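ugh ok fine here u go
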Amino acid sequence: MNENAVVLEIFINVEYGYKISEVAREVQSVVKKEIETMTDMQVAAVNVHVLNIIQEKEKDKDKDKEIIETEIIE
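structure:
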């Protein structure tokens, strides 16, 4: 392997309703392209790990949490 080659580990959450395989492939493609474009490194692999499937209710809870945290900080 090239000494400038890297293996990336990416951890994501996927919103319910999206095809996990398509999302993972798109993440791999975009990350590989951007890293190789912005650096002199060659990307040997982009390993995408799906941690959670986010359902609408969970998404709304996260939005509420962000609003509460924003209000407290301000």
